[in-house]
Amino acid sequence: MKNNNEKGTTYFNPYFGGVMLGLILLATFYITGRGLGASGAAKSTVVAAVDRVAPKHAEESAYYSKFISDDLHPMNTWLVFEVIGVLAGAFLSGALAGRLKFKTEHNPKITTRRRLIFAAIGGVFFGVGSQIARGCTSGAALSGAAVLSLGGFITMMAIFGSAYAFAYIFRKLWI
Amino acid sequence: MGPLIPLDIIPEQWNNVIAVIIGMAFGFIMEGSGFSSSRKIVGLFYGYDFTVLRVFFTATVTTAIGLYYFSYLGWIDMSLVYIHPTYLTAAIVGGLIMGVGFVAGGYCPGTSLIGAAIGRIDGMVFTLGLMIGIFFFSEGFSIFEGLYNGGFMGYITITEYFNISSQLFIFLFTVVAVAAFYFTTLIRRRVKQVNY
């Protein structure tokens, strides 16, 4: 069930991890009728922050206003609660496996600074792309493809296809 | 009979409690599978580690088979299950932009949170960038609006679109996944290994 990698830290066998993840996603659909997600919680955070700082601007905006209602706080969404769980679950797994440590993981050929700049740029791209496609790798690609959504499959292929297409440009960051 | 909450078999008030529990299981398995490590994730794009492909495909196939079995056995009403809507241009353009973010940042939104949870600073910075990107999109919504609503085709599945049986499609998808597992093993042996 365990799989060794070079640094001695042990991860689950990927097929075991895949089946477990699949069963969790199946349970999610069976219980709630919807799939998993991640970028939606980041969106709720942004909406809540803008609504707090500039409530008038948020109400007048065609996008933020979609996610603001009078009776519920913008953070009161299923995905925000799910992500709180994700952070706790990942922390627990990291703690049990001895992986808890503040560090920036990067190719030794590049500086920490460079890695962090590109991490930020990558995040910005993912932020814009996930809003256009109405979901990220979790919500659109994984949960979408699992229910055979046409859009889910298209987004999945577009994400991975584009990453392969641009891999050459960013190769010095990684190899 | 499911889905349980839409059918009120489990009261709606439990929804957020269930969200936390499901999230914990999701985070635990993702971290345990190595999704907290950006260098491991990106291995997929350079051929030195195919963990993401194995986990992702296995999970998709497992859920799809499970859901359609549940449906066949009458345990779940698929008409009450949320099908991610298809906006053709939005799905393609959004996906292309996300792909650049993936290979530049080394994470996707879910995995960056998982990295951040165990102290990976690159994961935290990616998450911050993610929120800035969402902020850009929201502020510039008038520019993106046409794209966002582009090519709406409804809440359609790939099998409805191509008019083939879901069971056959899932079977073929499983075969493709198994073939991909095999061929990526061969590729990995040929590619120069990266120590991380």
Question: Can you give keywords for this protein?
Answer:
heterodimer, A: 175 residues, mainly alpha, two-stranded antiparallel sheet, 8 helices, 64% helix, B: 196 residues, 9 helices, 2 strands
Mind explaining what this structure looks like?
The complex is a heterodimer of chains A (175) and B (196). Chain A has helices at residues 14-32, 39-53, 55-60, 78-96, 112-132, 137-146, 150-167, 171-174, and strands spanning 2-4, 10-12. Chain A has 175 residues and is mostly helical. In chain A, strands 1-2 form a two-stranded antiparallel sheet. The two termini of chain A are 28 Å apart. Chain B has two domains: 1-82 and 163-196, no CATH class; 84-156, no CATH class. The model of chain B has no long low-confidence stretch (mean pLDDT 96).
Structure summary:
The complex is a heterodimer of chains A (about 180) and B (about 200). With about 180 residues, chain A is mainly alpha-helical. Helix content of chain A is about 65%, strand content about 5%.
